[in-house]
Amino acid sequence: MAFTMDPERIHEMAMNMLQKGVFRARSFQDPRLAQTLFGVKFPNPLGLAAGFDKNAVALNHWHQLGFGFVEVGTVTYHAQPGNPKPRMFRVPEDRGLINRLGFNNEGAASVATRLASAKSSVPVGVNLGKSKITELADAANDYQESYRLLHSFGDYFVVNVSSPNTPGLRTLQEKGPLLEILSALREVDSKKPLFVKVAPDLEWDALDDVLAVAQEAKLTGLIATNTTIGRESITHDPGEAGGLSGAPLKIKADAVLAHLARSADPSLILIGVGGIMNGQDIYDKIRFGAHLCQIYTGWIYGGPHMVPDALEQLVMLMQRDGVKNLDELRRTGL
Ligand SMILES: Cc1cc2nc3c(=O)[nH]c(=O)nc-3n(C[C@H](O)[C@H](O)[C@H](O)COP(=O)(O)O)c2cc1C
């Protein structure tokens, strides 16, 4: 029944209930899934991807659904309404979703206030984007102003330069502008773990440029990937502009992740996201080189028990293959 309603309306209703702590998943914990990475303890490797809890309103509740960490945002310096509705479209035949929300969020000052009083029992990442009204040439300053307000409230920070729904944003993935943004953030706080989130539509050459930036700017890691502007992987194209996520994104996102893992310095942390629908998909991403994974669309399709179900399946697959922990699984490779 819920799937016949407007997807953004359902999302709003779900967020309301989440804030009240109405949803709870069965508990599933296993010491083989725990890791300490960049000084942060993760109880399991599956996090909530950016864009679900943009304003950090349900931060105290995500662990009850089994997530091992949460990424809030994208947050922009200026509060902004995003694109006109409707702007979120289901592609049920392909278990996909298309969105062109355009960074609707309450702005960095308001999210900072909320984060200051929130208590999450799992690690929290904060994803930063460029305000729509800020010129591309002033992007570094815009990210820096957000970071100034937010930097003390996250376990890690993400520079999002890969959303397809803010005009010109993805050009900030190029070496020059990206280095400028990262050094502006380092001026404010040089100690916090920093990630860059990349698009799945970059050529290998462009990914290699991002890797060079990662090295030069001493990034903690990369997040691969955001949504795709491609439509070749869906059988039922609703003809809507925006970024495609979910099952049809998996092959592309995995290919980008695998390329990064092959070429990156082994100390670079990789977070794999795009098309996770079950435990096998997490297993694949870790074997492609991911240290951590994230999910958005698959959780909507899978329902409230999706995370413990997927983690249990992951442990079963590890057991089947005689793998003792996630580090060993990553080293077996694909
Ligand atoms: C409705 C929607 C909103 C999103 N908003 C953001 C966002 O604000 N910032 C961001 O970095 N990624 C955003 N994403 C991308 C997700 O974080 C993720 O990278 C992408 O959906 C692929 O994962 P999935 O296949 O598990 O959904 C959004 C995705 C969806 C479906």
Q: What low-confidence regions span 5 or more consecutive residues with pLDDT below 50?
A: none
Strand order, largest beta sheet = 3-4-7-8-9-10-12-13
SSE arrangement, N to C? HEEEEEEHEHEHEHEEHEHEHHH
> What's the number of helices?
10
Distance between the amino and carboxyl termini: 39 Å
Bound molecules: flavin mononucleotide
What percent of residues are in strands?
15-25%
The CATH homologous superfamily: Aldolase class I
Secondary-structure-derived class: alpha/beta
Rg on CA atoms, Å = 18 Å
- The CATH architecture is Alpha-Beta Barrel
Task: Give the SSE map.
Blueprint: H1 7-19, E1 35-37, E2 40-42, E3 46-48, E4 69-75, E5 88-91, E6 96-99, H2 108-117, E7 124-128, H3 139-150, E8 156-160, H4 175-188, E9 194-198, H5 204-216, E10 221-224, E11 243-246, H6 250-263, E12 269-273, H7 279-288, E13 292-295, H8 297-302, H9 306-320, H10 326-332
Parallel strand pairs: 3-4, 3-13, 4-7, 7-8, 8-9, 9-10, 10-12, 12-13
Antiparallel strand pairs: 1-2, 5-6, 6-11
Helix pairs in contact: 2-3, 3-4, 5-6, 6-7, 7-9, 7-10
The structure holds flavin mononucleotide.
Features:
single chain; 334 residues; alpha/beta; TIM Barrel; 10 helices; 13 strands; 17% strand; globular; binds flavin mononucleotide
